[in-house]
TrEMBL record:
Transmembrane segments: none annotated. This is 8-oxo-dGTP diphosphatase. Its cofactor is Mg(2+). Keywords: Hydrolase. Coiled coil: none annotated. It comes from Shimia gijangensis.
């Protein structure tokens, strides 16, 4: 069941991710290859941990700006759902930007590189993070 993406849900959450489409391709980030982080050298989506009392959309959009240099407006969010994993709540959102946004992507200080990929390729990629594959599948099934 989808939850409103307006950020008014008062559930304490741990972090937020964004399935960001640039045209018809999905923005992904190859995580650093370090043993001290979860999912080293796997393909990730923009997003991360909550800071302070920010709401879900604010968290996802801040992380996207830090990781890909893209300023995405909250109005661009078209879908959101709260998921639970290991007793913690996480937001997962989707947004679409035009293909021209690709020229504005600048990798932040985390990750090895970024790539725009067909979303169905991400769903089948053995080096994609499994929980984000299933959440992306939920979004694609809902649209």
């Amino acid at each position: 069941m989808s939850i409103s993406i307006d950020g008014d849900d008062d559930t304490a959450f741990h972090g937020a991710k964004l399935a960001l489409f640039i045209g018809d391709r999905l923005a992904t980030i190859l995580r650093d290859d370090r043993v001290d982080i979860p999912w080293p050298a796997h393909w990730d989506l923009p997003g991360g941990g909550r800071e302070g009392s920010e709401n879900g959309p604010t968290c996802a959009l801040r992380e996207t700006r830090e990781e890909l240099g893209l300023v995405v407006s909250q109005a661009s969010l078209c879908w959101g759902r709260l998921y639970w994993r290991k007793g913690l709540a996480f937001w997962f959102f989707a947004a679409h930007l035009p293909t021209t946004a690709e020229k504005d992507i600048k990798l932040g200080d985390e990750g090895q590189r970024w790539a725009l990929v067909d979303p169905h390729h991400y769903l089948k990629n053995p080096k994609a993070i499994p929980q984000f594959q299933s959440r992306l599948a939920d979004y694609l099934a809902a649209t």
